[in-house]
Write a structure and sequence with these properties.
- This protein is α+β, with helices and mostly antiparallel strands.
- The protein folds into 2 domains: about 230 residues, Porin (Beta Barrel), CATH 2.40.160.40; about 80 residues.
- About 20% of the residues lie in helices and about 40% in strands.
- It contains 4 helices and 12 strands; from the N terminus they run H-E-E-E-E-E-E-E-E-E-E-E-E-H-H-H.
- The protein has a 12-stranded antiparallel beta barrel with strand order 1-2-3-4-5-6-7-8-9-10-11-12.
- Helix 1 runs antiparallel to helix 4 and helix 3 runs antiparallel to helix 4.
- The chain is elongated.
Amino acid sequence: MKHTTIFLTIAAIGVIHFVNAQTVKRGRNEGTMHIPASNVMGNGNITAYADIGGFLSPEKFEGNAVVGAGIGIAEILQFNAQTTFINFSRFGPTEAHLQATLPGNDRLRFFGFAASGDLYLSTSLDTITEGADVTKPEYNPYPLFSAIVDFDWLSKPRQLPLKNYITFNMADNPRLLYRFKQLSLKTGIEWKFSQHSLFIDAGVAFYKDKKNNPLVKQKYNQKYAWISPGGRYRIRNRFSLLGNFQITVYRDFEAHSVFMPDIFSVRVKFEAPIIFRETDAEAIRTLVFMQKKKEETQEGKFSPDIEGEQNVINKFEQTMSDLAKEDETFDYTKERDNLIKRREKVEALMEKIEELLKEDEE
């Protein structure tokens, strides 16, 4: 009897460890290639990233590299900064962003909003700003603003793993801030799988030349539009490799303009969490994907009771059944408590194994 109990207990622990092994560690602020999520990464979390791209324009081919890092400094606040290396050799602009989101955006929710204060430190030779000329060029900072709105459909009862993004910013190309005032509107749709995701972004940007006669009221009369499909591939359930290609589908710039949008570009980005503490939102998202996978394959059914109590797997199934009820949303407190109970159940079962093994030795 003791050996049977030990076997069943070890089998239960094995199933639990198998379930935990499938857990994907994803950041709250994961977005697409062009648009960050409105979520912030969480207090104390740190992520580093590198972004390499090749750009083809009518005049030339150019390759750039970007390195940066971000840190969560509060549950609703994060800071990130990055530097660009033009043609992998000389310094380009450096950016710093302080992003604040809505309270409660650290949970799995439908609507999210964030505002960001953006500072761009230009390395472009500025000879057109008032007070600057060829003999006395300037390198100016540009404090600007951006906003992000997104909709996470996974928080709805039908568990649709789709997320929509919309963002507005005032720096489509930071290298040209000295020469153009810029407005940019981007939107994206991301379909999330249990680990990876596919997305498609699109955007339109408007430019106004600063060098024109300041006495004449100028309009944002130069513009272009683009579309960019891509995806995220997760490595070892933690690191992310993102890639996309972008095609310019419309251009309307003056013939003598100093800027002409790239016709085609390709980018690859690697994200590496340095300090990562999973939050309720990521844990719930992982549970949803795991349950959907189980329902599709109809595998992994293991439901014996141990010591007259419902085992951890049945507990998990009941939790996910509650999440799937129509016209209901997630009870975050309940989900947090369920996760805590699962951990306590594992610890209790492990202690029981130790006790049974000691008794068997005696």
